[in-house]
Specification:
There is one protein chain. 25% of the residues lie in helices and 23% in strands. The termini are far apart. The chain has helices at 25-36, 77-86, 117-131, 178-182, 203-212, 245-263, 346-352, 355-375, 384-393, and strands at 11-21, 41-44, 61-62, 113-114, 134-136, 140-147, 150-158, 161-172, 187-189, 195-202, 220-225, 271-275, 286-288, 306-311, 319-323, 335-337, 400-404, 411-415. The chain is α/β, with parallel strands linked by helices. The protein contains nine helices and 18 strands. Strands 1, 2, 5, 6, 7, 8 and 16 form a seven-stranded mixed β-sheet that branches. The protein has a three-stranded antiparallel β-sheet with strand order 11-10-12. Strands 3-4 form a two-stranded antiparallel sheet. Pfam families: FAD_oxidored. One of its GO terms (molecular function) is 4 iron, 4 sulfur cluster binding. This is FAD-dependent oxidoreductase.
Length: 435
């Protein structure tokens, strides 16, 4: 016998306006946007900390930058709020020029920072409590109850057993499109290069921290394995997917093996590991096949249905506007995607999977579900102009338009600081809303 048969009745534990699968930066941002619009919100998180890869995964650099590289802000709203929250109770590397949240300053320093993962976790806990957002830790999403494209509820597993939750609207911020996939959405899986981050310290680092009176100087990032482009991927090693649990386990063990080979060379009286990640540090896993796929060809294109902007980290002025269509997929009527699972590929995905952009798409998702509930319509049918207006009113930057930079030989991208999201003058006529 090659299968088990299962038939049971699942008890409904509670009902919410909005349920969010995943408590990473995208999920937190969606929860904040939905809750601040009056919704009753639940985050279901498989770990025991909010922040996802940014915290439990030790990806402790708040990137991509919130500016274009020439002193112009391109991201604001919850993305900017969470950047400052990440350093509220810990060290930071935020350039002084960006300390006052200005929209345009005379600097080439990027609006980004390193942060203490554990201080950020505590700050996120505090914020969720202040906002009145329910968080269910140590709970794994198992399956969705779907009828005619509408998700009626989700089934989860935790110490209580197998239980269900109902909601009117859902946000998939799982990082792996788990809710979308198990609800019948078309999805695409990608392979991952082997990467492993950890932290260590040594006597030299400690001495430098004491000398400079800066504890951040006492930390050493242990980066092993491949770059995001595959450079230094171990020879002969496959690219990893999330096809099954065993492959995830192989990924984690292979990364730790790389670190162990390095640690074996430590002088144990002078060097020590301090922190290991508690999540698989996968960059790209599964994404939705949305109404629109954002690609490299969309660099510096202005979209009429944009919900915010992102940038290539090492290339100033390479801006991606993010169409709302990349957050939704055909046939799924009350689930919206947020975070690295949105419909993007290649360099566009490298940009949209990063922390700050996850906050941008999370805020858009949380705002969209409120609008859909309010209008009693499917997530695909909300008026995008109204979504943009609400995002802009909450501080988000929706569009940019080309202007001449002050720096010789450079072409800048000026965000639409008028924040009038429905003003056609902010649309670049040369940009196309689709291909």
């Amino acid at each position: 016998m090659n299968s088990f048969a299962e038939s049971r009745t699942i008890r409904i534990k509670d009902e919410y306006d909005v349920i969010i699968i995943g408590g990473g930066i995208a999920g937190v941002s969606a929860a904040l946007a939905a809750r601040r619009s009056g919704m009753r919100v639940l985050i279901i998180e498989k770990g025991v900390a909010l922040g996802g890869l940014a915290t439990s995964g030790l990806v402790v650099f708040y990137l991509c930058a919130l500016c274009d590289g020439y002193g112009r802000k391109i991201m604001s709203g919850i993305a900017e709020e969470l950047l400052h929250l990440s350093i509220k109770y810990g060290y930071n590397t935020l350039p002084k020029a960006w300390a006052n949240n200005l929209e345009k300053i005379d600097t080439r320093h990027r609006y980004a920072t390193a942060f203490n993962a554990y201080a950020f976790i505590l700050a996120l806990d505090e914020l969720m409590e202040q906002e009145g957002i329910d968080v269910l830790f140590d709970t794994v999403f198992s399956s969705a109850v779907v009828e005619d494209g509408w998700c009626k509820g989700v089934i989860v597993e935790n110490k209580e057993g197998r239980i269900g939750y109902r909601a009117a609207m859902f946000v998939d911020a799982s990082g792996d499109a788990d809710l979308m996939k198990r609800s019948g959405a078309a999805c695409v899986e990608d392979g991952n290069w082997l990467t492993y981050w950890a932290y260590s310290t040594n006597l030299s680092k400690m001495a430098s921290a004491l000398e400079k009176n800066d504890i951040y100087q006492g930390l050493k990032l242990e980066f092993h394995g491949s770059s995001r482009t595959g450079r230094k991927h171990p020879e002969g090693m496959k690219r990893f997917t999330i096809h099954d649990g065993m492959e995830i386990s192989e990924f984690v063990k292979a990364g730790r093996k790389l670190l162990l080979d390095h640690v074996k060379q430590f002088d144990t009286k002078a060097e020590s590991l301090t922190t290991l990640p508690t999540l698989p540090q996968l960059r790209t896993t599964r994404r939705i096949d949305g109404h629109y796929v954002l690609t490299n060809a969309d660099k510096n294109v202005v979209f009429e249905d944009s919900i915010g902007c992102s940038t290539e980290e090492d290339k100033p002025f390479h801006i991606f506007e993010i169409p709302y269509r990349t957050l939704i997929t055909p046939g799924i009527r009350n689930i919206v995607a947020a975070g690295r699972i949105i419909s993007s590929i290649d360099q566009a995905r490298e940009s949209t999977r990063l922390i700050s952009t996850c906050a941008v798409t999370g805020q858009a998702a949380g705002t969209a579900v409120k609008l859909a509930i309010e209008l009693g319509c499917a997530i695909q049918d909300i008026p995008v102009g109204e979504l943009q207006r609400r995002l802009a009113d909450a501080g988000a930057i929706i569009h940019y338009k080309p202007v001449q930079a002050k720096y010789p030989g450079a072409t800048s991208l000026d965000p639409d600081y008028s924040r009038q999201a429905d003003d056609d003058s902010s649309i670049d006529p040369s940009g196309s809303p689709g291909h």
